[in-house]
Amino acid sequence: MSVSSNIATDGNSLVIQVEGRFDFSEHEAFRQCYELQGNKPDRFVVDLRQTSYLDSSALGMLLLLRDYAGGDEASVEIINCSQDVKKIFSISNFDQLFAIH
Amino acid sequence: MVSQATTESILIADDNLVDRTILSKIVRQSGYSVVQAKDGVEALELYAQHSPRIVLLDALMPRLDGFAVAREIKNSPAGEFTSVVFLTSLTAADELASCVNAGGDDFLSKPYNKVILQAKLRALQRVQDLHSKMQQQSSELRKHNVHLVQEQEAAKAMFDSVATRGFLDAPYINYLLSPLAVFNGDVLMAAPTPRETLMLLLGDFTGHGLTASIGAMPLSEIFYGMAQKGFSVSDIVHECNRKLNSILPIGYFCCAIVAELDFRKQTINYWNGGLPPGFLIRPGAEATVTLEPEHLPLGVLPSTRISVVPKVIEAHPGDRLILTTDGIIEAQNLEGEQFGYERFAEEIAEPHEKCIEHLLAEVQEHMGEQSRDDDFTMAEITMQSPETAQVQFDSKSLEGELGADVWRSTYELRDCSLKQFNPLPMLVRLLMHCPSLNAHVGDIQIVLSELYSNALEHGVLGLDSTLKQSATGFQQYYEQRAARLESIKGSVFFEFDCDARQPEGILKIRVTDSGDGFDFRQCGGPNAKGNLGYHGRGLSLLSDLCHQVQHEGSGNTVSAEMHWETGH
To answer: Are B242 and B216 in contact (CB under 8 A)?
Structure first.
């Protein structure tokens, strides 16, 4: 299982980690780790420290998360991106939709 | 278990009558019917006749021994599975093993133990049940698969007819579209517009296969429909985005570049939403220009939030425009290294007769044994002169039904609508209601769009056309244009007067803008020919296409008169 999640110490942010390739094979795992939370967290953080690659279906999954988290009012942060991953976000201009660090 | 087995028959082959009778009795008590054979040959005959699913075979029998019978049964082509159990008084381990080697599934030692025999029969029945369930499922799967393949093939045929039709056969367009699955998430389209420019769209849908391709149908309808009616890059992007945003589920989108190549003005107008930067490679020492993605992909944002303002770059005959989706750039070798954007840029910068073939060979060498996991799509378009581009527009598609030969009309576009709305497609359609004008739709588009952009840019927006004389000014000009459009105030007023009753038709177009005008008498007038630099192209073109062009009033009105043969 290369997708895992935990509630941050502040108690209302969900941190999702994705390890290895972030592509369509993680679709179910990724969705479940935020949909199966009892109380919907206020903030979502996607930690890509261990992510080597992401494809366009991963971008799609992030859009689904954003929609789940409230669309334009959503607070979704993407942190610890490698240079390669950052490049993918900048080409697709997803930095207009997510706070990417 | 027993009740389920009542209809099943079991074949018992043994030359010893006593043994056979004892065994038959036990088997019947377990709820099976019994077929008895006294030697190997009879066993095979009865097997063919009754097709029992379980066969109990004495190893040593006259005429044909149990081993031969077992091999025969196991080799029979019938799809059903038959369990073969050897009955034997043999005790040596290698002799028992030879029973299994001959195809036996188990063996029973004589004398028979009723409890063990019945337990084994139940075990064999479980294997039988499992096997027939598997058979049933695999035949269902086969049927589903055949159905799926048929549907995919039908869908692919439809998809292919929309994904790559149009103008892609032009000699100066090279392209590569290599589908990963039966289906491809990439689309490449090209269409001539009525103003004799070439409109291009390269798109990459999220994911692969059927889901990725569903959005391609409406995309292609919108693209070809709008391009042939003369809509601009912004209009096409806006509509494609609106449609995809409304039909695609969240998480699905299309990275795309829409570009309009104007061979006459030597410009490329483009909008890049999420595709890797395109390249415009200029022969000689001039620097390569990149077409950067500045927007989110199509389908992500609602219409109200998407920016559809295109960028404009200069492109001269011989310049090569290269567009690609991310498949080639992200192609990995066994070590997981990507081919990479830098290498892509290096490879295409080299002048190559067959740039695409060369690049594909390089990518394949890079990948080695690694299998491909994305589409490889790429297009190379070499800029042409207007003469060699031969962007011929098929005007038949615009023909009006009944037609109006003699009419007048006025139309005024004001304030913020000048920024939001492109009136030209609508006005061209209005003019096409005069049937004999249909053959001249290209000229009319060019004249109208020149008149309109002059009125808008130099009149209402007050942009200085001499800026466009230098390459840096060219950029500056379009930046100023975009900035001033934001708060535009003013109007552009069109007047049309058409009379096509005589052998020579006359169309008068007057366009008046709300700007300050200019002293046209000092400027030598629009009829001045010769090299006028970038900014002169529009007006000298007008005088080529029109019978007469003149400025009026304070220079904020231009009237153009076009003549044509009506065939009356």
So the answer is: no
Complex ipTM value: 0.86
* Partner-chain contact A55 B338, CB within 8 Å: no
Residues in A closer than 8 angstroms to B273, CB to CB, are 93
Cite the beta strand spans of B9-133 per DSSP E: 9-13, 33-37, 54-58, 83-88, 106-109
* pLDDT tens-digit map of B222-265: 998 898 888 889 999 999 999 999 988 888 899 999 999 999 88
pLDDT tens per residue, range B450-508? 899 999 999 999 988 788 777 788 888 888 998 999 999 999 999 999 998 888 999 99
Q: Do B206 and A56 touch (CB under 8 A)?
A: yes
Would you say domain B2-135 falls under CATH 3.40.50.2300?
yes
Query: Do B507 and B497 meet the contact criterion of CB atoms below 8 Å apart?
Result: yes
Fold adopted by B164-389: Phosphatase 2c; domain 1 (3.60.40)
Q: Global pTM?
A: 0.69
- Pairing, β B254-262 against β B198-205: antiparallel
CATH number of the B395-565 domain = 3.30.565.10
Asked if the Cβ–Cβ distance from A97 to B326 is below 8 Å, we say: no
What is the nearest CA distance from B111 to chain A, expressed in angstroms?
55
A–B CB contacts, 8 A cutoff, strictly below? 54
